[in-house]
Amino acid sequence: MSSAQSSVNTVCAVSGLPEIDWRAPWFEAVAVRGQSALACDDWRDALSAQAAQAAWVTGQGRALRFVAQEDLPAGTAYEAFIAATGGVPTRRNLHDFFNALIWMTYPRGKAALNARQAAAIALDGVQAARGATRDAATLFDENAVLFACSDPALGAALRAFDWRTLFVTRRADWGRACEVQPFGHALLEKLVAPYKSVTAHAWIVDVPQNYFDRTPPERRAWLDARIAPTLASVCLTTREFAPLPVLGVPGWWPDNEDPSFYQDASVFRPGRREKA
Predict the structure, then answer these.
(1) What is the pTM of this model?
(2) Which of 14, 39, 189, 201 is 20 to 30 A from 272 (CA-CA)?
């Protein structure tokens, strides 16, 4: 374990958050903004200011900002409050910190999810069980990665649990025919202290080959614009996701350089491929 990894439980006196190793590849999309926010007296205010400058909005077109959890009135649904006011109730913890950073990274996708959730609440109220659509939206929000792929064979390998093809045989195609971009904020929270079995719910996004000629920020902006209409209107079900153990992503964990890393069936399960 590196010194950076062993320090993740060190409390930062200024932010009150555990120390984050921003060099980890899964934080690449949020590292600059996250470090900048933590350098300010109140990271919620800092991110709110950035959102105002970018003119980001929530599900019903309200200006995005990050407010104290205490601003959420008792008995008011979280998603409905965000849609109606623009304020995202935000606690001073890792979970909500990463939620704010994902709002800033994928503002269209997050707004679409918020609108979907708020509309479901307006229609059905807050129930003990969310229902299939809200379950899928929540899963996307909390634990999704976007699997951007220009070769359908790689997406098929992921869906078939064909880990050898995806991670060993086609390893050289990562970064030029497929990649993973984290979306779920609970997933990022878990990856502050990573372990081998951390598994994301991958949402496959078909991309053109020239997608990989873009810079990483341009890729994420492209993905944000692509997924937002789907999240806003298409029927969502949990069956649309494919499990993806994220430490298997090439370049994300030193141990996966050895092909035997993927032979751990407790993590890289045979799944549907064996059943087929």
Answers:
(1) 0.91
(2) 189
pLDDT in tens, 61-78: 999 999 999 999 999 999
What is the rounded average pLDDT for all residues in the chain? 90
* Three-class secondary structure assignment of the chain: CCHHHHCCCCECCCCCCECCCCCCHHHCCCHHHHHHHHCCCCHHHHHHHHHHHHCCECCCCCECEEEEHHHCCCCCCHHHHHHHHCEEEECCCHHHHHHHHHHHHCHHHHHHHHHHHHHHHHHHCCCCCCCHHHHHHHHHHHHEEEEEECCHHHHHHHHCCCHHHHHHHCHHHECCCEEEEECCHHHHHHCCCCCCCCEEEEEEEECCHHHHHCCHHHHHHHHHHHHHHHHHHCCCCHHHCEEEEHHHCCCCCHHHHCHHHHHCCCCCCCHHHHHC
